[in-house]
Amino acid sequence: MKNLDFDWKPLALVPLLAVLVLPLVGSTSTWVTLTVAGLAMGMIIFIIASGLTLVFGLMDVLNFGHGVFIALGAFVATTVMGLMADWTGSNELWRNLVAVFPAMLVAMLVAGALGLAFERFIVRPVYGQHLKQILITMGGMIIGEELIKVIWGPAQIPLPLPEAMRGSFLLGDAAIEKYRVMAVVVGLVVFGVLAWVLGRTKIGLLIRAGVQDREMVESLGYRIKRLFIGVFVVGSALAGLGGVMWGLYQQTVTPQMGAQVNVLTFIVIIIGGLGSTGGALIGALLVGLMANYTGFLAPKIALFSNIGLMVAILLWRPQGVYPVANR
Amino acid sequence: MNPNLLELKGVHTHIGAYHILHGVDLVVPRGKLTMLLGRNGAGKTTTLRTIMGLWHASQGTVVFDGQDITAAQTPAIAGLDIAYVPENMGIFSDLTVKENMLLAARSAKNASQMDETRLQWIFSLFPAVEKFWNHPAGKLSGGQKQMLAVSRAIVEPRKLLIVDEPSKGLAPAIINNMIDAFAQLKQTGTTILLVEQNISFAQRLGDYVTVMDDGRAVHAGSMQALAEDEELQRSLLGLAL
User: Minimal CA–CA distance to A267: which of A235, A305, A310, A302?
Assistant: First the structure.
């Protein structure tokens, strides 16, 4: 018998928001441009948030230091892409991709390695102590930011898009930036891989079960702490990848960028339901769309529009759009 | 070979500031079904959780199959072939029935690698498990969840099966199914330790019994001897079987 009980309402929020905004925007072409920009931003935030939500769900760890992996990933990308200036300056897309993919890979490796150390020395001593987790992980992020300043300097560094990724496609009258399409594609690939691992593999099954009831997973004979370390490292690596994507999106990187994105990331995982990857995707897309629509329609309220969105969602579903059972 | 698969000697357990177990002695003979009886708050669940390493004994020893597991971690204890069904059943509500079963089948990487013969046997014991195979476990009724919890514990052969109150909140017809299931498991030679408050359930299944009160084992012997001694029943349990 098939499971027909999937809850479609949260998923419907994304197209619903887009459709409701269309008359306010007025121009269809502007609406398409804003929508694609919002989806691209949402996908990048999802890449960053997916690991964080699993880290919280699995071990009840509030990691306010997640932003350091974002900033580190972006700064590593400036170095790697700086070393490949000939390739990023080329007009040929494949040569640009040859520069961007190693930058992403190295950023993920470095962020993942830092994640391993962060879990061992900062998070592990404060398991089960939320207040200490908040304080010590924020402290870890401050140290990380200072180390970035030591290595790359305190000033913002440009991270220009490679030549062939600049500019826009024209879809009728709507201009769609090439990089935003790429961000959506990368986000979809990450989501697809995560969905496959979580839904189709035994490791994924263990992660989903551990998010619900880690004591029972241990009673079945599985060492959930090892699983958690793996998830923490992968989550850090994904934040590093998200940092590269965000840096290219903004075309500049600063040591404080992680702390800035952190706010959006926490809004996303709260909207999604702590521990829910599917919820994080919905939350990220809503946040991305909301930021772009309000930025165009009412720039003065853009800053707190996402907080308003979170409040509205929590009034509707206090545990987030896809609350994890047993929590 | 030691005739007892599991032995607890003088086990004390503290939970925070509370001293719950005050020197519990318990033996679980191999291939037999041992009942752990006692009033609410006697320490039965704490004893099971201490065996599983979910709470650690502050004093005393827990020995399983000749190995001291007093200080061992829960995954290592479960890895010694002990299956545990907690009082709240420990069902993963967001996972399907199939996924719950697959998690317990440690040797299987996917559903097709689960032992089909054993699955058919489980389906014959608990048809609801097969009927709702692809349903989210959270949608099952209380009785169906209990069946799933026991099915999950027996999806692979284990040396010891520990179940905390399998009949709790179940309808009489389902209790009969449960009794049939444990009777068949006994025939396979599986050693079983059950916590129970349903005296009729205990009497029909138990080979041995340990009665707990106030964090101590106050009586141990054969179930039959307890069933035949009304005076002893009244003094230990406050009622006759």
Answer: A310
